[in-house]
Amino acid sequence: MNVFILNTGRCGSTTFIKACQHITNYSSAHESRSTLIGESRLAYPDNHIEADNRLSWILGRLDNVYGDNAFYVHLSRDKNTTAESFAKRNEFGIMKAYREGILMQEQENNSVLELAHDYIETIESNIAFFLKDKTHTLVFSLENTEEGFRHFWQYINAEGDLEAALAEWKTSYNAS
């Protein structure tokens, strides 16, 4: 079974994968195929856990390949905290792509924080819509990592070092 960590970004996906690297019966990676196109983009190995916020833009393709035959985690974090983190990255990455490529704003028509909140609402809505007919799902809040990760571990029948995995949540990876 494949596992996909769907998220906005800036919500702990790197840490989630660091914790998953203590699982011995799954491989795991963060944004491992994000530069690929075509069939290669979603050609993950079996029993693989992938976190990639860009999957939220290609959920139709993800559904065509994996449908209800995967486990989906909806990873989130307090929206205001996430928006503040994105605001610090306004001039590059997904925020620049959203502002210039999706919204087609050549200049700042909105505050950086308003733009970040709009992006988060868009992605959260895409993920919720995608998951509405899926039977293997877990809503996972960054604010409740220990209980959430223990539940995740049990649901996917993970093997490995749970305590080492839980310890990963004490480190901030990829912080703004």
Structure characterization notes:
The chain is globular and about 50 Å long. It has helices spanning 13-20, 59-66, 79-87, 93-102, 112-131, 145-155, 162-168, and strands spanning 2-6, 27-30, 48-51, 70-76, 137-141. It has seven helices and five strands. The chain has 176 residues and is of the alpha/beta class. The protein has a five-stranded parallel beta sheet, with helices on both faces.
Mean pLDDT over the full residue set: 95
Q: Which percent range fits the helix content?
A: 40-55%
The CATH class is: Alpha Beta
CATH hierarchy: architecture: 3-Layer(aba) Sandwich
Query: End-to-end span in angstroms?
Result: 33 Å
Tally of individual helices: 7
Strand order of the largest sheet: 2-3-1-4-5
CATH topology: Rossmann fold
Which residue ranges are poorly predicted, with pLDDT under 50 across at least 5 consecutive positions? none
Order of helices and strands: EHEEHEHHHEHH
Largest sheet: 5 strands, parallel
In short, what is this structure?
It is built from seven helices and five strands. With 176 residues, it is an alpha/beta fold.
Outline the fold blueprint.
Blueprint: E1 2-6, H1 13-20, E2 27-30, E3 48-51, H2 59-66, E4 70-76, H3 79-87, H4 93-102, H5 112-131, E5 137-141, H6 145-155, H7 162-168
Parallel strand pairs: 1-3, 1-4, 2-3, 4-5
Helix pairs in contact: 1-7, 3-5
